[in-house]
Amino acid sequence: MEEIQEIEQEIEIDENELKQAQEQMVEIKEGVRKAFGLISIKKKMPNYIRKSMKHKEWMVGDDLGETMSAQ
Question: Is the pTM of this model over 0.70?
Answer without folding.
Answer: no
